[in-house]
Specification:
With 513 residues, the chain is an alpha/beta fold. One of its GO terms (biological process) is polysaccharide biosynthetic process.
Length: 513
């Protein structure tokens, strides 16, 4: 079950439209610290590659992390000589801090970064950002550990990289293959909501961002890369590994306690078919059954252990009631988090109260079974009591799952009203009787916003306008992508238009060039 999303709900991912050129489509950030020798060759090589191969407009942003050598001078010189290059100076070190700062200020719909040593072959750049432009994915990463990747590096770094990813898989259940490859991209609308939740400002920034995105249900695209190790890398391996392990502990503890509010990430990008209300197809039934069975099996063992302990100090009815009460509280808490996916403390007391009602039904079944057994036999064997309790608990378990699914952790939230198959956007009121909806072939605009070409109004305090979402199977729709529109409604730039940029080698008989 997913709880209500925050007021920053965004529409489903869509392909970025191609129109007149304006804001750069791609902003590639290069974080640097004391890279006076490598910076200029890197930027010129990247600029040449993008000019030759990238079909949209682009920008290269140098993020200087408080360099103490002549790196700022080199960056300023590159900015002055190359129109697509921008220079950004930070007075504090930290790759994560640099990326968060530059990405948050960028107006490009696709944000990427790569290391200054260009260890990753640039031919992977277009495959990296293409799924983000098309709307297929939310984030993209280069992977040195994919089967088809071709990597040249020493055994020490290879061991550390694979060991680190095994730790992530074992501790944080990460499914992505390479957390630390310096070759990543993210859609800007995703970054506006995801980045404020990432705390790390150093090398663990990448891992934390990916873990939170994956836990929130966002789609991460992986691109196998060709990668050659830089023998002159200035990364301090021991310190970086120590900081990463501290970050793994911090994020793992936050996820276990439910202190991370990932609910607001789940539905803003919820074009997941599993989120749709489809007739006669229960949502997540198979997964919930598996989770419930696992929790139920462990709860039964816990219950039997408690019953055996309490039976030493009292009668069977008292021991049964106490064991069932304690195990019911633990069972409700475990099913709430693991089976039905409810995170955080909101509604926990209500769920426990409803769970106690379900507990009362289970108590009636098991107590009734014990009463019937004691009536039939004056002094039943302990093994017979356990067998009867197991049978009664099986019946109570089936009933408990049904009540949990349709009542305690029901997908319908309080105050939801059916709207004849039309789901209103979060925060929007239900349509009035007789109200008409836009035709599927009509352009879709933010409600209350002017059409294309009209100036935008409203400041940081203005509420974010709601959007009409066209069904994904409808065709001939015209959709506007709003550059710079953050989830909190604080950025109100004009509607962005994009067009593939013609290169000098392109042939066009009608072009004056």
């Amino acid at each position: 079950m997913r709880t209500d999303s925050s007021p920053g709900t965004l529409p489903a991912r869509e392909h970025l439209p191609a129109a007149t050129a304006g804001t750069p489509v791609l902003d590639v950030v290069i974080p640097v610290y004391n890279e006076e020798k490598d910076l200029q060759p890197c930027v010129r090589r990247l600029h040449d590659h993008l000019t030759r191969t990238f079909p949209y407009s682009f920008r290269i942003t140098i993020a200087d992390n408080a360099s103490t050598d002549t790196t700022p001078v080199v960056a300023q010189r590159l900015e002055a000589r190359i129109p697509e290059v921008r220079n950004f100076r930070l007075e504090q070190k930290g790759r994560g801090r640099a990326l968060r700062t530059v990405w948050s200020a960028s107006d490009a719909p696709i944000l990427a970064y790569m290391d200054v040593d260009l260890s990753t072959d640039l031919n992977a750049l277009l495959p990296l950002v293409a799924p983000l432009i098309s709307g297929h994915s939310d984030l993209a990463i280069g992977s040195r550990l994919a089967r088809s990747s071709r990597v040249v590096r020493g055994p020490k770094r290879e061991f550390i990289s694979r060991a680190y990813n095994l730790i992530l898989r074992g501790s944080l259940q990460a499914r992505f293959s390479d957390a630390q490859c310096g070759f990543k991209a993210i859609r800007r609308d995703v970054a506006q909501i995801l980045l404020p939740l990432v705390e790390d400002t150093g090398w663990f920034f990448d891992t934390e961002m990916l873990v939170l995105a994956e836990r929130a249900g966002l789609r991460i695209h992986e691109v196998p890369v060709d990668w050659v190790d830089d023998p002159n890398s200035t990364v301090h391996i021991v310190k970086t590994a120590t900081d990463d392990l501290k970050g793994v502990w911090r994020v793992g503890r936050a996820l276990a306690t439910g202190s991370l509010s990932l609910d607001r990430l789940t539905r803003p990008f919820g074009d997941d078919p599993r989120d749709r209300d489809i007739m006669d197809v229960p949502k997540g039934l198979a997964r919930q059954l598996v989770g419930f069975c696992v929790v139920g099996g462990l709860s039964t063992l816990f219950y039997l252990l408690l019953y055996t302990v309490f039976r030493q100090f009292g009668g069977s009815q008292v021991a049964n009631a106490l064991a069932l009460l304690v195990s019911a509280v633990a069972n409700t808490a475990a099913n709430r988090r693991l089976t039905f996916g409810v995170r955080g403390r909101g509604g926990a007391v209500k769920h426990q109260a409803q769970g106690l009602v379900v507990f009362g039904i289970g108590l009636a079944l098991t107590s009734g079974s014990l009463f019937a057994l004691n009536t039939a036999t004056s002094s039943p064997a302990h093994s017979t009591e356990l067998a009867v309790l197991i049978a009664a608990n099986l019946a109570a378990t089936v009933l408990r799952f049904l009540l949990f699914r349709v009542w305690v952790f029901s997908d319908r939230r309080e105050g939801d009203e059916p709207t004849n198959g039309v789901t209103a956007a979060p925060g929007a009121s239900a349509p009035a009787p007789g109200a008409s909806f836009p035709h599927a072939s009509s352009p879709t605009y933010p409600t209350g916003a002017p059409q294309t070409g009209a100036p935008q109004t409203g400041g940081p305090s203005a509420p974010l306008p709601q959007r009409h979402i066209v069904h994904p199977h409808d065709h001939n729709t015209t959709t506007q992508f709003r550059a710079g529109e953050a989830a909190d409604g604080s950025w109100r730039d004009a509607t962005m238009q994009m067009l593939p940029v013609r290169r000098p080698h392109d042939t066009d008989p009608g072009d004056a060039r």
